[in-house]
Amino acid sequence: MAYTNNIESFKASIEEIHDNLLKQMQSTNADWQMPWHKGIPYALNAKTGKHYGGNNLLILWNQCLINKYPNNRWATLKQWNKIGANVKKKAKGTLICIAIPKGRRTRRDIQHALFEPIRTSEIIRENQFFRFKFRHVFNESQVNGYYGSQPELFSLNPISLDIAKELVLKSKAEIVIGGESACYRIYEDRIQMPELGRFEDSEGYSKIENYYSTLVHELIHWTGHPTRCDRLRIAEFGSPAYAFEELVAEIGSALLVSQMKGTIVPRISHAKYLNSWLRALNSDFSYFVEALELSRTAVYYLNEKTGIYPYDLKHQHVRSVNEDRVARWCELSTTNNK
What we know:
single chain; alpha/beta; 4-stranded mixed β-sheet
């Protein structure tokens, strides 16, 4: 009975978050504010240093927003005790679901073979590939005796331009300055950026912040090259599949800038993709979670390549694209929802 209750509680949490995200996307105004533009801070386990991903990341991100937690570090009661901290009395834990692969190669095989994450509707005690465990985790604001330091390197706000510049430099991406629009050209494997003088100050952002927010977005696209994270071979510019790639880049740049304690500058030009996103996500919200996982893979690639990361970088399982799922996205995103 307890296991069944955990399943229902977890599913209810996810469905509520999905509904809220869709409502926020549908109600966006002329300023083109998306839910992720304020940043998506990585959820870290305070004991292991590893990331929470997928639906767990959405749940913990949502809890940080609701409770105004300043940091996104979590651990179970037992883990907090092991590192010398005590969970405060009456603190309420947040339920997450852990998928444990069966066999050494299962996780890698699954993530390379499947495009979508495990759907909440399919969570039972175990399936062909995974067994599932539910755990309650507590934020560091809910404990006493923990003094995890926030790295000074990533303490600037709204965005550390020095870190952004260093990230771009160490990525060794080829960047050509000129023209009127920013884009990544896959066949030339280069990023084109207008001159800094073409960018303008906007409400709450300087022109240089606008410039680097745009450049970080294009850098996520750059990771999609076949020699890197290999997303763009099936996402030709202007195609329905490319709209999904834009969602990956939007979320990826939010994750990356969050590492710098900054926020994303909304790009009005991306509003043209909104209807496409909504058509697909209203039919199957697992694509948002998959875009989140693909963007995490892109950011992990940049962290590993540049060595720029605010914590000890732990190994992360990467996500790859499945062509059948991309084809299904194209169908959903070009069909009117009734």
